């Protein structure tokens, strides 16, 4: 698979006009000749595609806007040219990962999990949201096409970061609008977690990560995590550990087996780690829970 290291390489590969900035570009005109081979890049990509009037509406889940969609692509993602090509009302924003170096976004970019969502987990925006995103893009475009100076990068980054913060808000709105999907994802996760604990897989396979549960629902790990955090206030890791401690309390109450064996049964390789987690979550060590006073606490 071809890897494109620079913004210029990406533009050449896709038949786009050369970028005005070697580290950042905004593209709204696309070549009809798309390369077929898949590729990856060192750039963050934002794809905004506004549905044209007269186009048939896509078949979307209940509660989903059909005005168009945004997709966010992380550096290193395996993609095709078709995945980032948009219609006449759309655009693509390209930012090389080094464009953020020395800036706040160099660290905070990792908190915008939607860059690692699957295509099916795109943001389907409302009309007012599309207007706001387009407005921010226009402000970045002014800096992009004007003669750059010492202020240009900071101004572009301020609008870029504002766009990401708005998108995070819009995803929360989408989770709320698609409550049937959100509820379904949450219920299936609970069911899969209960099955995993009851089946003895903890002892054989260890404590599962978000990727395990995401694969069962054909979701990206970050999307699953964000949906569950929206729904429950807890991450996948939090929910798994809460369930493990609940099971530990059950075993401590009803079983004579040792704390070491309980820790092993629950997927902990070291008893010390289990004891520390139990103490952190319950406020006292597991051996105390076995006393009448501990069980009443």
TrEMBL record:
<dbReference type="InterPro" id="IPR009057">
    <property type="entry name" value="Homeodomain-like_sf"/>
</dbReference>
<protein>
    <submittedName>
        <fullName>Helix-turn-helix domain-containing protein</fullName>
    </submittedName>
</protein>
<dbReference type="Pfam" id="PF12833">
    <property type="entry name" value="HTH_18"/>
</dbReference>
<dbReference type="GO" id="GO:0043565">
    <property type="term" value="F:sequence-specific DNA binding"/>
</dbReference>
<keyword id="KW-0804">Transcription</keyword>
<feature type="domain" description="HTH araC/xylS-type">
    <location>
        <begin position="191"/>
        <end position="292"/>
    </location>
</feature>
<keyword id="KW-0238">DNA-binding</keyword>
<dbReference type="GO" id="GO:0003700">
    <property type="term" value="F:DNA-binding transcription factor activity"/>
</dbReference>
<dbReference type="InterPro" id="IPR018060">
    <property type="entry name" value="HTH_AraC"/>
</dbReference>
<keyword id="KW-0805">Transcription regulation</keyword>
